Amino acid sequence: MIRRALPWLAAAVAASTAAIFFLWLIFASRVEEGAGLWAEARRAEGFAISWQRLDIGGFPFYFDLGFVEPRIAKDGWSAEAPLLTATLLPWRLDKIDLAAPRLAVAGPAAAVGLEALTAQLLLEDGRARGLIVEGGAVSARLRGEDLGRADRAALVIEHFDPAVTDWQTESVAGKVSLRGTKPASRFAPRMLFEEPYDLDLDGAIKGPISDLVRWRDGGGTVDLRRVLLAWGPLKVDGKGTVALDGEMRPLGAGTAKLQGLPPTLDRLVARGQVKAQDASVAKIVLGLLAQPTADGGSEVTAPITAQNGRLFLGPVPLLTLQPLGEPAGS
């Protein structure tokens, strides 16, 4: 009985496999066609999109789209990689998992590169509604000059609306995390500590951001909902609002809870940025304002301002701030 059923069972398995294969091929062709239609729609919006070859795999449960040498560009900005892999599940076409060995993003004045990129793109009606990106060996340049490196970086874009024209409306909102950040050696004389730092930003950019000078002149701002900084003995937990001054330097104000201020003041004295007498007075005042923390330490809540190219904690200057671009007419 069983022997008689085996040929029928084998035939059923073969037929099912063939059906799955042909269904996968049909869906794969539709996915490939959808990628082309998406690219054409973005080109109609002014984007330049290209790739050398598109390979599709992943049979039988998912689709792997391998874009060889993809590139997308608009308004002087571009992003490119040697290979970009996009993975889709047939029942979740609103979510795409991405991976690339390297990614390079460049603009008129700035450039960022990272390796071993992984990302997740969330779609709604064919448009991006969210993006999560992580990568390592991060590098950044501004006007051709090295800014430094980071061991790891993560970017979460929760809202993106490039068509914004109102200066009080969010064009981009999300989070940025940097781990093991090491500024370029030319910044060493202005750095508080030699150790790498960790930084987390949660905020939103208001106003159109296609042109940095226009954004500044129109009244664009960055609302920092939370800033976490761990740098040597210093720990900062703050929030504030930032814009750009006439020299394209950060300009803003906020408040922060700070730990590790005594050794930070000692470092400022050693670097000649604060007088020893002023640091001693500051330690006494800050000691009176300090509140105990759960771990047995203490913290101080103080105003932080950025003006005239300097970052201040109360009246004490901490850092020299560099321009983020060329002022108009320079």
Quick tags:
elongated, alpha+beta, 330 residues, 4 helices, 22% helix
Helix share, percent: 10-25%
Radius of gyration: 26 Å
Instruction: Tell me the β content.
Output: over 45%
Please tell me the overall pLDDT: 81
Q: Write the H/E string, N to C.
A: HEEEEEEEEEEEEHEEEHHEEEE
In this structure, how is the largest beta sheet organized? Answer: 19 strands, antiparallel
- Termini gap: 90 Å
Query: What is the approximate shape?
Result: elongated
Structural class: alpha+beta
Number of helices: 4
Number of strands: 19
Low-confidence stretches: 8-24
Give a written overview of the molecule.
This protein has 330 residues and is of the alpha+beta class. Helix 3 (261-270) runs antiparallel to helix 4 (276-289). The chain has four helices and 19 strands. The model is unreliable at 8-24 (pLDDT under 50). It starts with a helix and ends in a 10-residue tail after the last strand. It has a 19-stranded antiparallel β-sheet that branches.
